[in-house]
Amino acid sequence: MATLRFNALKETLNRKPVEVEEKERRSELFGKNVFTESVMRQFLTKEAYQSVMEANATGKKIDRTIADHISTGMKEWAISKGATHYTHWFQPLTGTTAEKHDAFFETIGDGLAIEKFGGGQLVQQEPDASSFPHGGIRNTFEARGYTAWDPTSPAFIYGTTLCIPSVFVSYTGDALDFKTPLLRALHAIDEAATDVAKYFDKNVNKVQATLGWEQEYFLIDSALAASRPDIQLSGRTLLGHSPAKGQQLDDHYFGSIPPRVLSFMRELEKECMILGVPVKTRHNEVAPNQFELAPIFEEANLAVDHNSLLMDIMQRIAERHNFMVLFHEKPFAGINGSGKHNNWSLSTDTGVNLLGPGSTPMKNLQFLTFFINTIKAVHDHEELLRATIASASNDHRLGANEAPPAIISTFIGSQLTEVLDELEKVTDGKLSPQEKTELKLNVVGKIPEILLDNTDRNRTSSFAFTGNKFEFRAVGSTANCAQPMTVLNTIVAKQLKEFKKEVDGLTKGKKMKKDDAIFNVLREYIKDSKNIRFEGDGYSEEWEKEAEKRGLSNNRNTPEALKAMITEDNIKLFEELNVMNRVEIEARHEIELEEYIMRIQIESRILGDIARNHVIPTAIRYQNILIKNVRGLKEIFDNDFKKHSKEQLEIIQEISAHIEKINSEITEMIEARKKANKLEDAEEKAFSYCNKVKPYFESIRYHCDKLELLIDDEIWPLTKYRELLFTR
Ligand code: ADP
Ligand code: MG
């Protein structure tokens, strides 16, 4: 019977917002549990402090004896804050964070114990890593992996545990996590962008990639979520008829935040403040029960850590407020899905945003240089960029008319398009003084005004320029930003190196002046990368056709999209920039395929179970009620009964037809699964799941959803869309 559903509804309707105390000001709370620079100055020796700072700035390794000093200071601080344990905190390739807690505690014989945390324990830890995905790396080489401290991301205390942000690598040094390649890519972009930035300002010694993510999510009451096995096990609904009212009225987006949600947000933000995550914006999103949270942007590695940490604490805090957070890209069919926009830019140690407008023509030429090189990089590597956002769950969103399509393109706005059109006309070779003046005054000189007045927005572009940063909008809401950030920074680094080589080639032996050379190279890039620029409606069918004509990729599913990861060209690219080696890339490709297979496999099983164990029995029960009714009618009306039971008989038949379809399709789906499981090769298996198993989802769902409309609401066991989405 539908008792679970109705009990859950009753529970939900009786809930009150959980009280959240907010005594201290946010500015006072900020970073309270973070081992920040000022805390370090307080708890570390001068030498130790300096070596952390140096490691931060230059990537220089920290000496082992110094590590002992640092760990002692860190331990003192942590214990003063009530911490009892420490853990290396890392991001294995599973999409969540991992930790193994050890106590600051050591026996010293004679029944005595001390609190201890040595340099060795700070620098390195060996988690029991056999359960983390490794794509064969550890099997082939070494049985163990270890975690190593990343001094560029500050340690923090969560609960009573000191968390030390770490990388996770095999004993051969191969990356087993998201962070390692990201750090390498950030190093590559630093080198490449610093070299180019020096054309414009000799004082630049370091360039950092910046990331400001925007996290979308759904909040569903935990009792309601628990009443749906599909939500519990796969994070999304595998069936459910759309409600009479969806998001058409936009009343959620413009409405006020519901009180229970607001109280959740307040506690979450408080926790974020304490942990140094600079969250700033919160609002309702388009779909009912959908929300968004965004921080102030930070250095990319730190921003990635903060996003992972946030996703983790969101789930924990949601529990206290009787919510379940759905990060899934498409938890409800027919309702807007969730993404995680990645706002990206580059910033120098002299405090300049390289994608922001400057105050002089030369500074604007700098802007144009980084702007055009980014577009060129995206143009040359669009398929690889698409691969980084591929996942079983994001497949539901990309190209579904509500999110950017599976096609990567850049939107820059009409005014910057005009600027690039003008630059395209620049003469080949040396520029005349007149031409230069003209350029500086009328083209380059106008950029600041354009950027300040950037009202041009296009929400349908997958990679849009938004005034002083690019916004990669196709990233999935469950994704770890490290992946898209690793690739984006790698391809731009590669492109900037190329650019420098070409400009230096032209200026060598004073053949050409520097700015002439820059204009010349940029002109060619503008021409070469035109195909990636699109200003129109990215959700339209015309764009799909147009993109095909332009030769842009449109990889609609994950196995197809992932192919780009392992092309020889891309392996060469990663190796050349020291971001990943062949073994690491191939392992990652394999892990992504396995993950994809697993997701579809699990969903297929859940769908089969729900349809057979919940939907069909309920349908039969209702059918029996109808049959009894018809029998009764026959008793009363005798031969005339057909006239009075016409509708009932029709529904009885309809129910049978749906049951028949559901049952036979589940049998076929299971057969398809068995066939797929026999395949050895991960790619073949993934394609088989994609093309042979997944297509059954839609049709099984169709018949189940039809039954939902036919059957008496009183006995329908699965919590309905309207209840999941509109109960507060
Ligand atoms: P919007 O109008 O799109 O909401 P904002 O300008 O407020 O735009 O920025 C949206 C996001 O972009 C924020 O999360 C912010 O942190 C981020 N952002 C702003 N500037 C940068 C930058 N230079 N680098 C990276 N992210 C940035
Ligand atoms: Mg945005």
Summarize the structure in words:
By secondary structure, this protein is α+β, with helices and mostly antiparallel strands. Strands 10, 11, 12, 13, 14, 15, 16, 17 and 18 form a nine-stranded mixed β-sheet that branches. A hairpin with a 7-residue loop joins strand 1 (about 85-90) and strand 2. Helix 8 (about 180-195) packs parallel to helix 19 (about 480-505). It is globular, with a radius of gyration of 29 Å. The two termini are about 25 Å apart. It binds adenosine-5'-diphosphate and magnesium ion. Adenosine-5'-diphosphate (ADP) binds near residues 211, 297 and 343. The site of magnesium ion has 3 residues, from loops. This is Glutamine synthetase. It comes from Salinimicrobium catena.
Give the gist of this structure.
The protein is of the alpha+beta class.
